[in-house]
Fold:
Amino acid sequence: MIPDIVLQDNTNQRLPCVVLLDGSSSMEGSAIENLNEGLKVLEQQLKEDAIASLRVQLLLLRIGGHSDVDVLTDWTDAIDFSAPEVIANGTTPLGAGVKFALKKLDEQKRNYKNNQITYNRPWLFIITDGSPTDVDWREAARQAVEQERKGKVVVFPIGTEDADFDNLKEFSARGALMLKNLDFKELFVWLSQSVSAGSQTEVGSETQLPAISWGAVPS
Amino acid sequence: MIKYGAVSIAGVNISGAPKLNQDAASSITLANGAIAIISDGAGSAAYSNIGSQLIVRQFCKSYARRNIPLSLKEFDDVVRSIIEKIRQQLVRLSKMYALKAKLEDFHATLLFAAISGDRCFIAHLGDGACMLFNQNHEIMSISLPENGEYANQTHFITEENWVKHLRCREISGNVHSCLIMSDGVTPLALKGETNFPQFTTPLLTFLGSSEPAEAVKTLSETLRSDTVMKISSDDKSLAWWLRC
Structure:
């Protein structure tokens, strides 16, 4: 080893990641319990990852209530992330949630640029057990696909087995994925591994995502 | 007298095994000077390791054959003509070996620093960094990485609009030493857009006081260490010249 040399990671780089969670009435019971357990796993997994804990930034949103979009956790480095408690009640304003998520991502990218922070392509995870209840959700879906096409965001629509996949798949050109047996723990382990890989993607390369053990492509 | 050298270490995959090294690096002496060069092949390009090796080999060969540039304009012209030649060679190479490859399949960056007498020129296209120091190891100039919108995007001499991204500069003042590095090393040497002297000062001291073979061996061990690989699993290349 070279004498007296300091070897430390000076990278000032972020991967912005929005997790949009369905907190509607239909999630009540084991679905919301498993979701909350899964969020704790996400917190633990990210904090154990030396690089992801410093590079991944999370924004957690909840849709529910009277067509509400709530900020559960505003932009925070993964190392400071504390799993919130999601409550189930009300409707599923998925369109409003996606529009708000895209707006927050735009704002955050501007913040990065103003502060000379380099960043990876943002990710948006949509997790729901139902179908959008707001009237103009298709416009939000169109915006999400358009943003994806322009390379502005990567969207991952994920539904439980009861979700309406015909509608959900409209939020991404790559379609939607089905979460089996409400296995939110496995889903959030995968999510943390994925964002970890995404935060370390090498120049000139695409992110290699880990294999999915928690779900399948809906038929 | 000038000391010079280069190392290029393959990155590791998710299980810790070495990957195919897509970087190439070299350093040679010239009349009254030296050059250091690195090219970093894009991970997603099928033949980027061939691209980076050809860039390094051709630059060393072609630059050494020419007269020392006397102005930035002359240097810029020399660099552009070498890049044009490399691009043509890559097309020929693809045909010769029936690779069915397009230029973008050889995507690779360029970092080049030449010193001759009191003239110091650099050429940079893409990411990585070129850092120039005075005799007290204080930073004089840094050529920073050029990324796209996202951190994992950059530019290559093999892309159509490469001219737009080529940055040639002459560094005035008494340049004493130069470190050029691929993006696998920049997290260690740069803090934001500034020098991280806790890395560069011990490195320059060591390179200046070591025999060439020892310098290459110890620097390779350092860049291959677990500590460094945890910071970046990417390929890592570093080339240098120092006045002694």
Remarks:
- Helices of chain A lie at 30-48, 52-55, 94-114, 137-149, 165-168, 184-199.
- The longest strand of chain A covers residues 13-22.
- The mean pLDDT of chain A is 92.
